[in-house]
């Protein structure tokens, strides 16, 4: 299996889950053929596309029209079949069937409500992974998982940097909290 590099995606002004974070997040989801993934705050669709290429049926919720366009273009570029839903979460979650994998990449300030709605449709034994720049959002999801007795909760703070140019300048990406849990 080949992972897609950031520069291969069609980009715009919409945030994208960066390569190193995407690998860890999709790895933590444990995607297998036949899984059903809900990607909330899908952005450019990078997580959705990687999951689809691993055999998941994917539903992507994105509120921004530019994001919807980018997801559709990237899905076509990588020959993936993704159901794209233009809506805000948690409302858009009502438009998808139950799922066994869930990725939260953006919450628009509605994280607790998003968790509650996603949890109601996530199958028992299903995996939920969230990525956050802010400690507050990470903490909200961790508290939600604890309150709902999620198992095998794992927390990571990832900071990656990449050497660029002939001079070897180190360019840092934002540190990202990654949290994973399994619904009981």
TrEMBL record:
<keyword id="KW-0949">S-adenosyl-L-methionine</keyword>
<dbReference type="InterPro" id="IPR025714">
    <property type="entry name" value="Methyltranfer_dom"/>
</dbReference>
<dbReference type="GO" id="GO:0008276">
    <property type="term" value="F:protein methyltransferase activity"/>
</dbReference>
<comment type="pathway">
    <text>Cofactor biosynthesis; adenosylcobalamin biosynthesis.</text>
</comment>
<keyword id="KW-0169">Cobalamin biosynthesis</keyword>
<dbReference type="InterPro" id="IPR014008">
    <property type="entry name" value="Cbl_synth_MTase_CbiT"/>
</dbReference>
<feature type="domain" description="Methyltransferase">
    <location>
        <begin position="32"/>
        <end position="131"/>
    </location>
</feature>
<dbReference type="GO" id="GO:0032259">
    <property type="term" value="P:methylation"/>
</dbReference>
<keyword id="KW-0808">Transferase</keyword>
<dbReference type="InterPro" id="IPR050714">
    <property type="entry name" value="Cobalamin_biosynth_MTase"/>
</dbReference>
<dbReference type="InterPro" id="IPR029063">
    <property type="entry name" value="SAM-dependent_MTases_sf"/>
</dbReference>
<keyword id="KW-0489">Methyltransferase</keyword>
<protein>
    <submittedName>
        <fullName>Precorrin-6Y C5,15-methyltransferase (Decarboxylating) subunit CbiT</fullName>
    </submittedName>
</protein>
<dbReference type="GO" id="GO:0009236">
    <property type="term" value="P:cobalamin biosynthetic process"/>
</dbReference>
<dbReference type="Pfam" id="PF13847">
    <property type="entry name" value="Methyltransf_31"/>
</dbReference>
